[in-house]
Structure formats: structure tokens, C-alpha cells
Amino acid sequence: MTATKTAPNPTSADRPRMSFDGSKAAIARNSEWLAGGVSSNFRLNISPTPLVIDSADGAYLTDVDGNRLIDYYLGMGPMILGHKPKALTDAVAKQMETGILFGAQSEIEAEAARLVCEMVPSAERMRFGGSGSEVIQAAFRIARAATGRDKILKFEGHYHGWFDNVLWSVAPGDAQPDAHGAIVPQPGSQGQLASTADAVAVLQWNDLDALKARLARKDIAAVIMEPAMCNAGSIHPHAGYLEGVRQACTDTGTILIFDEVITGFRLGAGGAQELFGVTPDMSTFGKAIANGFPVAAVVGRADLLDLTNGKVLHGGTYNAQPLAMAATAATLKLLTPDLYAQIGKQGERLKEGLQRIFHDAGITASVVGFPQVFHVALGLSKPARNYRELSTMNRAGYVALTTEMMYRGVRALERGAWFMSSEHSDDVIDETLAVAAESVRAVKDAGKI
């Protein structure tokens, strides 16, 4: 799959500075009906403004101002095939001819489930859901039912959805341990039930000794983690860490859950668990599973998932909606070794190019992660190992950089993550690196980095 051929963007000598006045006006106008003009807090307060998009194709977005932007948000991660891939849109259009929602099962649902179970090492059985946040809650319920325990153990900086019982210590700032050295869970929102902290324990990631000591108390139903910390920092697990966690969970009767909502079907067809060779008891997936359609899945050992046959309630009106299942099946069939090799090649070229630009400009920066999703952290001279180390990055400087890049036609997430797709061709990478070099010089000259 290659990007649609289009006329090249202007060179640095004549590239016009983009205006986003139309988006600003639309957000202000739409705020009369939509709180803040958006439907997700993660789209608020984007510099210079949250965008209002008119269309998307391949690696590009076109906003209401007519700006054509190279896109590294990719819908916050799902669009591994790029925007509007024909095989997917054709599959969904064909399914629409037969029906939209049945309140029953469909053959396309079974086909999508079979593909997931064939591709994912931990998937002996599965259930579909509508969002990552939702299927994570299903995994927790199953784990509590299976173990008879209540507490869930999570890690600082790992995001597992916006529900009260898990939105703890996602961005805890400089919160200090208690008198005994234990991490005190920090809420992520006003209005969050404080009592839900009683059922969560928080540790620093990549510290195997701390995990073993905590699990030895045998009161933890499940450990949940991103197998690679891609929501923040694209941080790799230490050598032997995942294997050690797997063994500690087995030894203490604790369910191990990998949150692969970001890493699943992005780092490879079998997700991070296949890449690292460690199989959890359950896993959760979303985002790239259906290239932009609202699909998620909880998968795992048959004895665990089969608890939903009657003992554990799992439901949802829109679970396995046929149009979304057609998108899922079409997407999974396109995730071939050749496609991952193509994305890997382009992602590595972009990573190396960005690191070279920072080096040549005398800017301290760390460009780390995976070719399919990586992270840029200004101010870090080496890769972060956990949330605490990542939190020392120059966030204000990085926002200034991504803002400058957007004015020049490249849209990258302010939190540092860069998502790649099969549509990021050589020409797209070349243009991105040219914009990055110009933007680094401009922001440095302005004293912002």
C-alpha cells in the first residue's frame, strides 16, 4: 500500500505559514453545543488550537481552513493503514448493504474473532467491545471473579482508560511516597470516587523486586501493564522484566493482563506479547484492530473468558456491530509481514532523521521506541526507564516545537508520541524531516528550546 501521489508541498524557501483561524472559529461556535467544542478531553487545549477536519486520505488531513497536514496523530494511534484505505472502505460498504445492527450474531463477527485468535498468542477465547476503557473493565471483572481477590495493581504513567477505578497515578506529577516508601495513588480527575483507590495498588514500572514483594502478599487479583510503555515515552521493558513478572504472577496466583490497546496490531500482528515472547493470561486490544472503527477486544485463556458464559456479566448493545466487524476483518487481513517491514523501514528512517536534526542543532533530545510508534523527549540525553524519568523532559519546549511544525504542515502529538502508517512514503518522510529541521531552527532561535 502506498500513499496517493500528489503535488509536493512547497519548499522551505516558499512554504507559506498556515492559518488555523477557521478551526478556532468553529471550536468557539461549536462550544455552544459541545462542551469545549470537543467530545474528548484529550482533544482539548491543543496548540495553537484543536483542529476541525474536513477530510483525510492516506497520510494527510485537510482541515476546514484548507490546510493539508502530514498526520502523525493517526486518530491517536488506530490508523495503521492510513486514512481511508480502499480495501477497508469497500468491505464496510458491502456489509452496509446487508444491515447495520442486528441484536444478534453475524458471520463477519466470527470471522473477525477467528483472525484475532489466530494472530494473538494469548487469545484462546475472546469478546468484542466498543472501547479500550470498556474491555479493560471487563478484564478486571473476570480477574476478580477468577481469583476471589479485589485489588488491581497498576504502574505510574500507564493509562488504562478513564474509569474511576483505574485512573490513578497516570500523571502524578512529583507526588512523593508515604512514610513507608509506598506510592500513594493520585487521582486523575475531579469527581473521581476516592474510595476506588482502596482497590488499586501502584508501583513504579521496570522494578521487578518491588513487584515480587507486593505480589507475595497474595491479595492482588490482577497486574495490568502496557508491555511496552507506549502511552507515555515508548519505554521498553528491561531485559528479563516481562519474563519475571510472568513468573511472579504464576507463582502467586495473580492474573497478568497486558494492555495492548496501543501496542496490539501495531508492533506486529501478534502485538507486543509476540514481539517480546511473553504470554499474559488476558490482553486488551483496540485502536489498530480496526483502523479507526470503534472496536476493542478482551482476549485470553479459555477458562477465564468462558466465565462470561454466565457467571461474569459482559454486555454492550454495539459490541461486534457488523460494520465494525467488517472493518476489523479487512484490517487484520491487511496486516502482513511485508506491511510491517515497510512501516518499520520508514519509521526507522524518520527516527534517525529526527535524532540527527536535534544533534546537528545542539539540542539534547531522546528519540526512542519502535519504528511503528516512537517518542521524542526534549531535554533527555538517554532513554527514560519509567514515568519519573520521563517526567523530566522539556514539555513546554516540545509543545513549542510541535506548534511550529503544525504551522508548517506537520501534525504531531504534543505528548511526544509519533504514530506511523503504511502510507508514510519516502516523499512524506522527506517533507516531514525538512519541516522538522526548519522548526527546530525557528524554535531554537526564539529561545524556546
Please characterize this protein's 3D structure.
With 449 residues, this protein is of the alpha/beta class. It folds into two domains: 21-80 and 337-445, Aspartate Aminotransferase, domain 1 (Alpha-Beta Complex), CATH 3.90.1150; 86-334, Type I PLP-dependent aspartate aminotransferase-like (Major domain) (Aspartate Aminotransferase, domain 2), CATH 3.40.640. 34% of the residues lie in helices and 14% in strands. The strands form three sheets. The chain has a seven-stranded mixed sheet, with helices on both faces. The protein has a four-stranded mixed sheet with strand order 1-2-3-13.
Which descriptors would you attach to this protein?
13 helices, globular, 2 domains, 7-stranded mixed β-sheet, Aspartate Aminotransferase, domain 2, Aspartate Aminotransferase, domain 1, 449 residues, single chain, 4-stranded mixed β-sheet, alpha/beta, disordered N terminus
